[in-house]
Predict the structure of Tetratricopeptide repeat protein.
Amino acid sequence: MPPRTNDHVPGSGRDTGPAEPPGLSGPSAPTGPVAPPGTTDARPGTGDRADARTGTESEAAPRTGTGTRAEGAEATARPESGTEAAGIGPETFPPGVRMAALRRFSAAARRARGAHLTVCAALLAVAMTAGAVAVGGSRDGTQAGARTGTDAAPAAGALAAGVLAGGDLDAGIRALQSHLRAQPRDVGGWASLGLAYVEQARTKGDPSRYPQAERAFDRSLALESGNEQALAGRAALAAARHDFSGALKYADRALKQNPYSERALSSRVDALVELGRYDEAAEAADTADSRRPGVPVFTRYAYVRELRGDVRTAREVLERALDGASTPADVAYVATALGQLAWNQGDYETALTHFARALAADEDYLPALEGRARAQAAGGDRAGAIGTLEQVVARSPLPGPLVTLGELYEARGAAGDRTKAADQYALVDAHAALARAGGVNADLDTALAAADHGDPEAALRAARAEWDRRHSVHAADALAWALHRSGRSEEALPYARRATATGYRNAVFLHHRGVIELATGHDGDARRSLTAALELNPGFSPLGARTARAALEDLEAAR
């Protein structure tokens, strides 16, 4: 599977203290600490990470309507033109229209690569959102006839919870937009709208929503400098854009305001993981577990364990989280995480069982559909895998499923499949350009796709840029593979070894390391790495598994 950026965005509202179920950190899994004075118990948020829906929290409603404008940096960061400029606008086009726009853009990009790519991406972003960022309103963020000052917004808390509860996100966003036109000084309402835009960007594969989210968070901070909801939301936004240093900064600021903020605690773990600071991530996961045990924290705790090679604990924690999942969104999210874990270990039947449970909870849950397709392909059902992935990319053309679908076309080798595969790889470039127009760092996706299916030198530039930002195992693997594909295998080898040094059991990493070891004359090491990759997950990649077997056969023949 591709890197699992665990940006499960907990539900809206203000986190006010620990809650049941009990935590995981202690030897007997004790409950969290007693809430500090002045707080109330609240159930942890439900929902999902980067590849799942957000949820709700039954806790205090967001602050509304006081209109207190704080002094400080954020207080001066007013949106330029009222509620419209802050991100209230029409909904995006349906997925089919977005997919058609991406295809047109990718075709144009192939005809004229280079200087106009970024401009085209920006135009594409505008086209795909149907002019969502309108201009209008007054300079102080109000519209004619809109109520201001101390007008209360009694429905804001319930409305925000409903938007993020896993229901109709688009309808919920429209309701929040309408509420904020009437109550433009609702601090919590703007923060909730920003988080909803982050979720909409993820579920629709539409990174043009991220600038709208940023404006909504900025509006909330302009109304009340340093408010925890908006700071935690900015942390989630930064993580979604792969700005993990920024995510850590905002999470730390939010936690100074509220040490029990589930969203900030979760984003802090995510940021440390993706920065490659794994010891600190483990400590952060323990802290989050002691303060806010629940699905968002449990899944992060499991992933930290998996990255350190402790698959057994990761599985046990996820199974416990699934037992405690109380909403369809949580069931789909946790079951998919279990499916991904099983797939990584080559247990395809178990993976398919978990993905089926996820889809029973939410038949449209794209990460579960993608996981099912990968398990189908690894288990020999190539036709089923292709059909499932074609559904996935038609709705959300993200790099991971696009590359896998392209490789499945290549592996099938039917008439026209080579052209179909090339089209998928071109769409990766198109999506990366659109992502950058939305402020997303797409270098890791670019490096991984271009190394195998594009320009190796472009892959190397992207991989080096990513390594400059963070030293995660995924960044190390991407740099190692890009160096190798660019003919610099000796330079690649230390990075390939670093990618596998934490104990993380990943067949792709082992395959890359084995190929690089073979290229540098370390035949014995190459044999061990390639064998380990195929024993761990024999169907890890439609094309990579085939090349690993061929390399082992060549090594045996040379003995």
The chain is about 65% helix and 0% strand. The radius of gyration is 23 Å.
